């Protein structure tokens, strides 16, 4: 159990029963052609390697790396390990994270100019495989995750059907398991595919990732966009959205792991956005790995979800709203209170109203700070009277979450007011820088 890369959980799946089917499912490659013919029978003539204990050095062993404990992790959390095997046309890299509830969002893969990089996000840590592959591969890479066991399979298609003797030469930080905060951001160049007006100053941009990239931005997380402006690298965070509010109800036009949509407001006097808006279709912009501290698990078992957004602070709400309505079975109500200056500033107003008409659990209310005299809705800024009516539990002790995002002073004010209304820290999630 200690040695097996899949760990106890994987072994227990076959304990006490005939494990043949399971073996065929997960260990088909442990057969004569792909593995065993490389093995020799007999006694080893050289002295066995003694593993260095002090420096946590990892030694390869028949392609499987020995587990090593990450020093500052709780004892139970152990570094993932990897293995690889091949058929005539494919190379499969298997990473055993031993973590439950992993999903395809946890796997970020990039392949460019012969360099392969896979980052597997495990809570606040990530496991990195970084290698110059020994042979060329095609660019369409598949990543599969078995949620129950945390096994990640990355399938590479060989360019030439030759047998690989080794996976590749290790590059910087290969086979490391470190805290996110210790890692620099990794960027890849994405192509601008389309830009569509959302309001007078805000657009929906679609970016296409390079063919060798597999990346899905988890809900509630943001990415950084980077451009060189007047000789300086300028980096700003943006929260990807869906191509529309209803995309879960039909097949998305573009797969989530290849295309990214961002809604960006252009500030004419801003540093980044006027330059970003000058990009032509077909131009490139650098896009980072996702970051952020929102966890999907915060939505688990929710009964009521309240979203407070101001201006482009609406962007994190898009995926949250969509995910909650589609996946949270106990959810009784989702209410969005959306603050803007004028009617012209309201993002996706039609879509929000259509969703509210169609989905009985969803309600939206628009509040304007600079309305015209024709506006018959509510007006003003975030305030106690507005909030106390809006964020009301419909049942005593119901499980609620309130998400808040907008200009920093708006968010800070909202947090203070929600505290005054006796919501606990766990019940409020604020999106800040
Ligand atoms: P900036 O140069 O930052 O200027 C913005 C405005 O402030 C301009 O009007 C400028 O004139 C004014 N200004 C700048 N400095 C000063 C100053 N010292 N005094 C007074 N006024 C000043 N934005 C989106 O549109 N969509 C998103 O999805 C999105 N997601 C975000 C996610 C996160 C986590 C965060 C923190 C921010 C997000 N933002 C988003 C905001 C975005 O990162 C940028 O701040 C925004 O695009 C403005 O960038 P800029 O460089 O063009 O403007
Ligand atoms: P905006 O149009 O300037 O303002 C939107 C609304 O917020 C307006 O009604 C405005 O009222 C109100 N507001 C502004 N400051 C306020 C304050 N101090 N107190 C109460 N209400 C206030 O907004 P925007 O230009 O779209 O800017 C959106 C902001 O959201 C940016 O700062 C961006 O960085 C942030 N954002 C953060 C994230 C994240 O994840 N952290 C994601 C997306 C966007 P007034 O007209 O009275 O000012």
From TrEMBL:
- Top-level taxonomic group: Eukaryota
Q: Which GO terms describe its molecular function?
A: cytochrome-b5 reductase activity, acting on NADH; FAD binding
| Keywords of the record | Endoplasmic reticulum, FAD, Flavoprotein, Oxidoreductase
In the record, which residues are listed under signal peptide? none
Cofactors named for this entry: FAD
Q: What is this protein called?
A: Cytochrome b5 reductase 4
Q: Which residues form the CS domain?
A: 77-168
Record organism: Phascolarctos cinereus
């Amino acid at each position: 159990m200690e040695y097996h890369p899949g760990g106890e959980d994987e072994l227990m799946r076959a304990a006490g029963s005939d494990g043949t089917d399971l073996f065929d499912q997960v260990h088909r490659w442990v057969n004569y052609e792909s593995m065993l013919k490389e093995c020799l029978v007999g006694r080893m003539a050289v002295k066995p390697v003694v593993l260095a204990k002090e420096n946590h050095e990892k030694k390869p062993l028949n392609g499987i790396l020995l587990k090593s404990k990450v020093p500052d992790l709780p004892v139970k959390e152990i570094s993932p390990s990897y293995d690889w095997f091949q058929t005539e046309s494919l190379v499969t890299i298997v990473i055993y994270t031993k973590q439950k509830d992993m999903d395809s969002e946890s796997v970020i893969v990039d392949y460019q100019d012969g360099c392969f990089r896979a980052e597997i996000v495990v809570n606040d840590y990530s496991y990195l495989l970084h290698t110059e592959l020994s042979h060329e591969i095609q660019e369409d890479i598949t990543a599969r995750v078995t949620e129950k066991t945390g096994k990640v399979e990355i399938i590479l298609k060989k360019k030439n059907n030759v047998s690989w003797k080794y996976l590749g030469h290790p590059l910087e930080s290969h086979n490391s398991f470190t805290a996110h905060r210790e890692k620099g951001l990794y960027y890849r160049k994405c192509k601008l595919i389309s830009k569509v007006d959302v309001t007078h100053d805000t657009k929906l941009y679609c970016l296409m990732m390079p063919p060798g990239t597999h990346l899905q931005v988890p809900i509630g997380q943001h990415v950084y966009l980077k451009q060189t402006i007047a000789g300086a690298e300028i980096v700003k965070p943006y929260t990807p959205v869906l191509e529309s509010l209803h995309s879960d109800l039909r097949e998305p036009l573009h797969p989530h792991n290849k295309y990214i949509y961002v809604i960006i407001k252009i500030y004419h006097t801003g540093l980044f956005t006027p330059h970003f808006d000058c990009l032509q279709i077909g131009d490139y912009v650098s896009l980072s790995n996702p970051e952020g501290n929102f966890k999907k698990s915060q939505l688990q078992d929710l009964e009521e979800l309240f979203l407070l957004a101001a201006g482009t602070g609406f962007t994190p709400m898009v995926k949250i709203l969509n995910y909650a309505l589609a996946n949270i079975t106990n959810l009784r109500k989702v209410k969005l209170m959306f603050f803007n200056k004028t009617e012209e500033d309201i993002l996706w107003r039609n879509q929000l109203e259509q969703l509210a008409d169609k989905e009985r659990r969803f309600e939206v209310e628009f509040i304007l700070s600079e309305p015209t005299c024709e506006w018959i809705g509510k007006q003003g800024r975030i305030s106690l009277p507005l909030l106390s009516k809006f964020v009301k539990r419909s049942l005593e002790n119901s499980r609620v979450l309130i998400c808040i995002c907008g200009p920093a002073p708006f968010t800070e004010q909202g947090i203070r007011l929600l505290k005054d209304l006796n919501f606990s820290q766990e019940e409020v999630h604020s999106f800040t820088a």
